[in-house]
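Troubleshooting log. The previous structure file for this entry was overwritten by mistake, so regenerating from the original sequence record. Sequence copied from the archived sheet and checked twice against the printout by T.R.
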Amino acid sequence: MYKALIVDDEEKLREVLNIKLNQFCPEIQVMDQASNAEEAFTKINLIRPQLIFLDISMPIESGFDLINKFDTIDFEIIFVTGFNEFALDALKVSAVDYILKPVQTASLIKAVNKAKSRIDERSKIEKYELLKHNLHHLGDQNTKIAIPGSQAYEFVKIEHIIRCEGWQKYTKIFLTEGNVIVSSYNIGVFREMLENYDFFSTHKSHLINKNHITRYLKDGTVVMSDGSSAPVSRRKKEEFMEQVVKYLAAF
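Regenerated output below.
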């Protein structure tokens, strides 16, 4: 059994989630509920849950305010939100789970199973320290991204990523110091995570950091700060000229 706490300002939503957990995730034992961050902070210290279902948007203090109260986070969190807010980018790049309201059973089961695995493998502290860092850098390249490699997660500042290149079912991440990380994520995952951080998809297999562009050749090739290059596909050339060239002209 895994001890859990549900934190949400809406009583009806807390009860619906509790019912779903009892029915579809019987290994999750909901010890209590909390309606705000202050109450949750007290109950977390008292109950010591292994898993928290945490609403992001609450009156007075948000779910993010709650996690900032802890120097060390030694529990798993599944964030729950009712809309696609900008702060979700911080969750995506931090490899932290969230589910959208109204909670779908399949999404809940998937998130719970992943949370149980993380509880068992004790990798949560590093990820939530990463999240706390990223919450202070929403939308800028000082944000750190969690990149799953063959043996472990690599935590890298987005500003140090020059480009990403799809390679079979994997992705090569080219960094400023000449290092290359091969990730088990396909390039589509990185495209989604980095789209709001000044990256541009020049080709189905290439994703580049606008801040590291040094030249654009007339043959449709982009030269990056490390001397490497990426092609711009025909269907992307017009969009590239409109977005990227204007972006670079602003600096």
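The mean pLDDT is 88. Archived copy saved in two places this time.
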